[in-house]
C-alpha cells in the first residue's frame, strides 16, 4: 500500500481545508482492522467522567499539520479533509508506526484504520 487512503463517511463544508502549520482539532477512533473490532485508541474515551453515564465525555485531539508532531499518516490524511468531514483514513505501516509499532498497543508493521472527524481548523 502506498500513501494513505481517505474514504469519506460524511461530507464536510468542501471549502475549508487545513494548510501547513495550521492547528487542527479532531475526534477519532483508531482500529487495527477494517471491521472496527480491534480498537486501540479513541478521543471519546478520554476526558472527565460524566456523573450520569459514568463514562468519559471525550477530549478532542489537537495537532499542527505537517510540523512533525504526529506520524505522517495523520498529516497526509487530515490535510485532505474539509471542515466537519468524517472519514476513514487508512494508514499503511510506513505512514504510521512502522516496524517498531508501539509495544502493548500497536503491533509492528500494522495498518491503521482511523475514523476521524475534523471539528476545527485554527
Descriptive key words:
single chain; 122 residues; mainly beta; 1 helix
How are the SSEs placed, and which strands pair?
Layout (H helix, E strand, L loop, with lengths): L4 E6 L12 E9 L7 E4 L18 E4 L7 H7 L7 E6 L20 E10 L1
Antiparallel strand pairs: 1-5, 2-3, 2-4, 2-6, 5-6
Give the gist of this structure.
The chain has one helix and six strands; from the N terminus they run ββββαββ. With 122 residues, it is mainly beta.
Q: What is the H-and-E element order?
A: EEEEHEE
Please provide the count of β strands: 6
Structure annotation, total helices: 1
Q: Could you describe the largest sheet, including whether it forms a barrel?
A: 6 strands, antiparallel
User: Percent helix among the residues?
Assistant: under 10%
Tell me, rounded to a whole number, the average pLDDT.
Answer: 95
What gyration radius follows from the Cα positions, in whole Å?
Answer: 14 Å
Beta-strand content estimate = 25-35%
Overall morphology: globular
What is the terminal separation in angstroms? Answer: 31 Å
List unreliable stretches of 5+ residues.
none
By secondary-structure content and strand pairing, the structural class works out as: mainly beta
